[in-house]
Write a structure and sequence with these properties.
It is a single chain. By secondary structure, the protein is an all-alpha fold. The chain has one domain. The model has no long low-confidence stretch (mean pLDDT 93).
């Protein structure tokens, strides 16, 4: 769990990096609509910031 409170921008950036690594490592690809991908990444970031973990939104 992250001890320091993340800003929304920091949490979003961490979620983007996390999801990009996840896609790069496996046989996965992002959903073709970038707006949908962004909403999911924002949700991951918000959950990490609020709950301390990147729970699936």
């Amino acid at each position: 769990m992250n001890k320091r409170k993340l800003t929304p921008e920091e949490a979003f950036d961490r979620a983007v990096k996390f999801s990009e690594r996840y896609v790069d490592r496996g046989p996965y690809e992002f959903f073709p609509e970038q707006d949908v991908v962004r909403v999911v990444q924002e949700g991951l970031g918000d959950n990490e910031r609020i709950h301390g973990y990147r729970y699936c939104p």
